[in-house]
Structures are given as C-alpha cells and as structure tokens.
User: What shape does this take?
Amino acid sequence: MSRNGVLELEIRNVVKNFGGLQALKGVSLTIRGSQLVGLIGPNGAGKTTLTNIITGLLKPTSGEVWFNGERIDTLRPYHIARRGIGRTFQVTRAFRRMTVLENMLTPGIVKHPYMSRAELEKKAMEIMKFLTIDHLRFERAGSLSGGQQKLLELARLLMLDPDLIILDEPFAGVHPKLQRTIYNYIKRVREQGKAIILISHDMESIFTLSERLVVLNFGEIIADGPPEEVKNDPAVIEAYLGRDEEEEEDLRQAY
Amino acid sequence: MKGRKVWVVFLVALLALLVAACQPKEVVKTVVVTKEVKEEVVVTKEVEVVKTVEVEVEKAKGACAPQSFDELPKDKDGNPIIKIGVPIPLSAPGSVTGGQAMQIAANIAVDHINSKGGVMGKYKVDVVFYDTSGLPERGRAGAEYLITQECVNAIAGEYHSAAGLQEKEVAHKYGILAVFAETWNDKITAAQYPEVFRIAPASSMVAEADAKFFKDMGVQWVAIVAENTDYGVPASEATKERLAKYGIESEIYLAEQGTPDFAALVSRIVEAVQNKEGKKGVLVLITGETSYNFEQQAVDGGLAPAEDLIFVANQVAANHAEFWANVPDGNYMAFRRVGVVPALTADNPVAQKFIEDYKKATKDPDRFPESYAFEMYDSLMLVVAAIEKAQSLKTEDLIKALESFNSRENGYQGAQGIYYFLYGTQNPVPEGVPEWMWHQWPDPAILFLQYTEQGQSVNDACVIWPDAYKTCDYQYP
Amino acid sequence: MEWLIAEACGSFPYLLRLILEGLLIGVIYSLMALGLTLIFSVLNIVSFSHGEFYMIGGYVVYTVLHHFKQVPGLVAVFLAAVVTFLIGAVFERLFLQPMAKGQVDRPNEYAILVTFGLAFVLQFVMLGLMGPFPKKVPRFFSFPEIDLGFLRTTRTTLFLGKIPLPGSRIFAAIIALIALGAMLYFMYRTWTGWALQAVSQDRNAAAVVGINPLNMNTLAFALGGMLAGLAGAVLVSVFSWVPWVGVPASAKSFVIIVLGGMGSIPGSLVGGLILGVVESLGTGCWPNPATAQAYRDVFGLVIFALVLLVKPTGLFGRKL
Assistant: This one.
C-alpha cells in the first residue's frame, strides 16, 4: 500500500532507446494521491513505451521509476503487478482459452491466496456484474466480441485491487453502448480512490474525465496541467491538436 | 564486414573441395611381371620357350605391418610385440553382450600366449580393440585404422556380418590376414579372398541345420523373425529356401534392430498360426538385446511354446542370467547354439583351461563361454599358430601356414575343436561345393538346446538336437 | 484386396485386437506427449531431452525394485515421478532460466543446444551407472484367476474372448490413465493449473496480473519431465531397458505433438492414441509380412505428413 496512505508514482528522467531510435528522451512525471491523469500524444509519441516501462515489461535505458517509496524499474512485471499497478493493453490480452470466470479468478489467487473460492467468486461476480459481462462467465474468452474482451480485461485487473491503473486505449474499437459502460467503470474506479492514467485518442472522454492532462510528443512531455490550460497551450495545439491547420496551409500553398 | 566473412568461408570451402578432389586414388594395379628365363640352349631342334608370366596384384600402400621379427615395435620394457587387431561391437546398435564376451575371451587368449613367453616363446602379443558397433562404416574405418595406424599383422574377431563384410574388403586391399570369429554371412568367405578365413559357420550352414531341426521335429510351418541387416536378411532367405526343400512352408518377418514394441507383429503371427494345421515353429533370427523384447512379448501376446508350437529363441539366450532377467516367461523355449557344450569339451585340455579362466574373468561360476567367446579365443590362437608354423610375419606365409591345416588329422587343436580348411589358394573350391567353403572351417557344432525349468542355467539345458549330441528329448509345455 | 491389406485384416476380432493394443500403448504415448506439449506451451521451447526423462523414470523403478524387492511397484513409480520432477526443476533453474530472463542472445538455438546437451549427459551418466546390458522389471501385479466366459484371466494375461491382452501393458495403461486424469484435473481445476495455462496463453498478460512466469517455467519443465518419467516408469515392466531407450520415445513424442498441434493438450492426447492405433494397424495389416514390422514407425510418420498437408498447425493446433 502507499506510504503514509498516499499513493506516489515518480518517473525520474526516463530515457528509452531502441537501437538508434530514442523513444523516450528523458521523461519526468510525478503522480501523488489519487488522480485521473489523461496521457495523450500523437501516434509514436511514446505513450505505450512509457506504460511498458512503468509496468516492467521494458527496462529504461536510463532513469528510474519509483512507486510508493520503492524503486520499481528493476523489478519484474509480476512483482510490479503485485505491488498494486494494473494495466490493460491496446490489443486486448485476455486468456483466450480460459472461461471468463477463470480469467477473473486467476489473478485472484495472486492477491488473495487465502480467500476461499466462494469468496473470490463472489468478488468476481460483483465486478463482472458491474461491467455487464456476468452472463458470459462460462464462455471461452476467445469467443467474446472485441468490446466484451476489453470489458473482461478491465474487470480482471480489478481482482488485483490495484492502487494505480493504466488504461491503454480502453475506448478504441468499442461499440458505443459498451463505451458508456467503460466510461462508468472509470468514474466508479476513480470514486474508489484509485489513481488512473488514461491513454486515449477519444478527446471528448479525455477532457471530460481527466483532472490533469499530460501531453507526450516525440518522447518528451510538452505539457502537464489542468485540461483547460493544456487545451489552449500553443505548443500542444501545434504538435497535436493543430495538425489540421498545417495541412490546410500546405493545401493553400499548392494552389 | 559480413560480406568479407562470407567470401572467406566460400574460399575455404572451395579449397577443401579441391584438396579432396586431388587426393590420389588408391588403385589396385595389376602388374605383370615377366620373369625372364635365361638359359643356354643348344639348339638341336626348335623348342618352344615358355615364358613364365607371374601376375602379382600390387597391394595398396598404407599397411605398415612389420614384415620381419626385427621390425617389430617394442613395448615400454623394450620387448618386441606382435600387434593383432580385434574389431568387436562394444556399443549400440551392435550387440554389447557379444562384444564384451569376445573382449574377455581375447584378453584370456593374450594371457595364455604371453604367459608362455609369447609367440615362439619370444614375442609377446598385444591386442588392439576397435568398437565397430556392428555398423558397416565403422567396420571399414576400424579395419583401416588397425591396419594403417596400428600396423597390425593380422585381424581377428568381429561379431556382426555388416561390419565384417567391410573389414574383409579392407584386409584384402592391404593384404593382411583376417580370421573371422563370429560373422556368418556367406559372402565373408564366398568372396574367396586369400587373406580371409572363418571359423564360425556360414549362414547357409546354419540355415541348413535350422531347416533340418524343424524337419526332424515334424514342424510344417515356420515363422522366421529376422533382423533387417546384412545378417538377418540373407539368413532368413537361406533358411526359407532350405525349409522349402524339406517341404516346410515359412513366412519371413523382418524387424529393425533396437525395436522395443513387437505387439502388433506378435498379433500378426498369432493370427497366421491360428489357421494352420499341424505343428508350427517360430525361429528368432534377431541377434542381441532386441531379441529379448520380441521373445517376452511373444509370450505376452499368446505366441508361447505350446503343444503345437516350437519356439526357437535367439542364440543370445545362452546368456542365461540376462535371458531370464529379460524374458522371465521364456521357459520351454529352445535356442540354437553354435559351438560346444560342456559335454563336448570334457576331453579337451585347451578348452578346459579357457573355460576355467572365462568363468573367473566373468565372475560367474555358472557361465559356460558362449560360442562367440570360444571363437574369439580360437581365432587369436589360430593367428599365433600360423605365425609359429610359418616362422614369419608375412601374410602370404601365414596364409600357407593356415592352409596347411587341411584335414582333421592335420588340423589345429583349438578350444572348440580341431580346425582345418579344405579349400583355398592351393586347392580351389570345386564345382558343386558352395563357394563359401573357401577357408571355411567345416565342423562347427550346431546344436539346439532347450530350457525346461524357470531360471535354468545354460549348463543344465538339454541338447535336443542333433541325435549325435542329444542329451534328452524336446519337452512340450 | 490382398495387395492393399493383409488377408487377416478382414477378421473383426483381429482388427479389434490390433486396435486395443494400439490404444493401450497410445495412452502412454499421450502421457509422454502431454509433457512435451506442456513444456512447449509454457516455455516455448522443444525439449530434446524428453526421451531421457522417460529413460530415467524406467531406471529409477528398476533400481528401487532391484534393491528393495519388497517395495510395491506403485511406490517405485511414484519415486520415479519425484526424481524426474526434481531433475527437471533443477535443470530448468540452472540452464533455462537465463534464457527466460533474456540473458541469452539467441534463445531458441540456445534451448535446443542446452536440452540436447542434457540428453547426452543423462544418457551417458546412466550408461556409466547402469551399464549397457538390458534390464527388465518383473510385472507389478499378477491377475487373480477369474473366468467369466467372455472375460477370463491367467496370471499374466487378460483374455477378452479370444484376444489376449498382456497384463503388464494393461497395468501400464491404467497407471498412465490415472496420471493423465490427475494432470488434466490439475491443469483445468486448480489455481496453479490456471496460472500455467495463463502463462502459456499470454506470457505478458499473465505477468501483469501478477503471475510469476519464471516459476511457471520451472513448474512446466519439471512437470513435463515428470510425465515422461512416468511413461518410462510404467513401461520398464514391458520393454527391456537400455540407456538409449529414450531416443525412439523422444522421436514419437515430437511426431505426436506436431500431429496434434503444438501446445495443444487435447492434441497431444488424441495424437498419442492415433499414433498407437495407426502403428498397430499398419504393422498388422500391411500386406507384405516381411516389411510390416520394419515399417512400424513409418506408418505413424505417413499419417503425420498427411495431417500436416491438410492442416499445417496440427489437428488441434492454434491458428498461425
């Protein structure tokens, strides 16, 4: 649990190189207490790379990541998961050949080795009900629709009782009705006092939900603050939001 | 950088190819040497002068066997030693059981020879073993190695025909004496090489004995289960032929050496046997350890010896400890045994000494030496006898010496019997006599025994055939 | 039809006998293949030492029963399972973990070399310890003699009508079935089994839900080796045992897992049974009696090739 009861994620000057390509050029970010941080940026900005580094699937080339007073960039992913950081993937990664219920229960034992199966199932059912997938619990995860699998991933990570959740494109490719469910999920999780990092291209949701917006571009943070401020930041507009204007300019010139 | 490495590799490969291609080929050349006969002739009438043409086949270079006793290498104490090469199987897929027995026997022979001071009382014998694993390529490599690297004066031994067939070629190529101990394939002697002798029976001799045995037992159909090798295939075909001569039908079933699972084959034979009238037989021509799998599974599958089925296990059944451990239900199985049984060696002091030392060396007071152990011992003794008779190390002299043993009366007393060779360079094989009789000992004992009690020692097993050596009748379960 | 199949194959009892024999040995093939598929699905490597675990399982049973004749056969089998499990676990920790931790440059080649190396080491250590001469374990149980007409037994054999089924093979198959059942229960109904499945289905996803893939690797390799060891432990009373007895067993396991679909548990089960039956029927019905047994392994390989032509990922294989 967090030190002093307050959650703290510190990313200290993380650099990540892939051969000659520098994906992250010295990113520093601190999240203290429960917040919903929106993380946006153009494709290739480094959002998923940063997520992979936080959750331990990648190691930074240099720099450190600290969580609740403990250095975590040297730990293995499952250690980090057990310390309370959960995440979803852009392309859903449910355990396809296991049933929905089995998908839910598998992480359960990790966090609650002494809970009885009945109790775990009760907890799982609660979460699944909220995400409207409880009626699918005996179905093979692989036979669910894309959107339902996303819901499953979201449900599954709650079994770990994480303090910090990183959601990577939760709305992408999801039916509008299910989007509503996900939206509600995010709000409810926020109400439970967890910290959330939300990565999305859905500008409406991002602006509505985020309390703080961090903008990543070419591996660097170019803006970090309340959404209203960031929205009007010229650097942000130029780099990310204002691309349409650039294209318009080019077209005009072409005439 | 990478491109350069590729070029280097390519060049090296090319060089290697060129070097390999330019190796001088070994050619056995036929050199015609004309002996000029100079004679003063007073011509009174026209006389035809007959030119003597001797054709000598030039042997391949590379053999380094000492040609005289002065050239012999010395051991660490400075004593001259005569080296003899012994190729035997000491690893799979060859029969390790066979090879090991032969190794023990060879060492005993060396002890016996050297304890008398050595060959002619002066020259100790040193044996160089080579593990041929029963494989033809290893037989060839082994013979090449022994002859060209170890410089042996002779080769003695070998258990598997597949390897032996190659070894005889190499021995002939280099002109080195080879006395084969336990290779049965007819072609070993049918090739009629002057250097090659054999004291084991030829496959055809054994096939004849097998067929006669079944005929005498009144069998009307035989399942021949053979190994798919240079031994098994010709042996099974020869046996089938001879059985047919006696009016007995048979079916050949081949199996690979090293097969563990014979269940389906057993089922097949059981099915085949069910519909046949009269007495049936099963003959196992798979050597070595694989035979145990077949034999036990035959019993498991219902193809056991019965009132109307005579089951002849492979000759390795003579190794009773191993047989009973691996074929616990093998009671009432018969097995062929080439070579002598205790009763036949009682009056032979050479045999007695060998048997005693063999039991000591194997630490088994019940272990009467197997035929291949006897043959190994005797083949080494024969080589030494040839050197002593010829008083020479030259192959042509050794050949003459061995050929001088040309009848029982004129033979060499070994542990298994009196060795002699009817046909050779001085007395070619006539029409009507099989080609493999060249340099072939005609008298190996081919007996059939039977286990009649669980766990029985081979010494107690009855000889059930032929009449000349029989000690009791075949027992039906 | 005599040119195509042997005449005897027209007879139903004969066919039934061949099929039953094929199933009896097929069950044990399945057990061994399950081990190999488990290793492949979790560690993503093909273990070239699988046959050697089979060989060691047999030798452990032989050694225990040889020195302690009073010990019941099942206890010896259990010990064989324990020993092979431990060998697998220790080997995985020492030699395969570096690969899983990303400390090795070429993990696939490395895994092949290292498991090959283990195979050689085990073969020759056992050759030194046990010698090259064939060993055999007497059958574990003798049947009680019963006679129910259609079904009767002698001490060694069970007769279904006229079909004799050797007792040693029946017991081997029964123990294998129990082991298979236990293994399946473990995989599908226990926490650890689910964790293993999770890692085999998606390694990274399993990691981010807190499952330790490294421990699962060790467990999978140890279990895989144990299953092979169990197969050997039950077959040592059927076949004569030598240090290289694992080599053909290994080859058959490879054929089965590719035939059934690599990484697929139902695939290895079905594949093993199919191979057993095909080998048996092939040998029993091949028209030329001379070559029938010699071609035994070929029949399985032909089916294997045919299946791969039609479905390259194997019968139950995951889609590529």
Remarks:
- The mean pLDDT of chain A is 86.
- Strands of chain A lie at 8-18, 21-32, 36-40, 62-67, 70-71, 85-87, 164-168, 195-199, 212-217, 220-225.
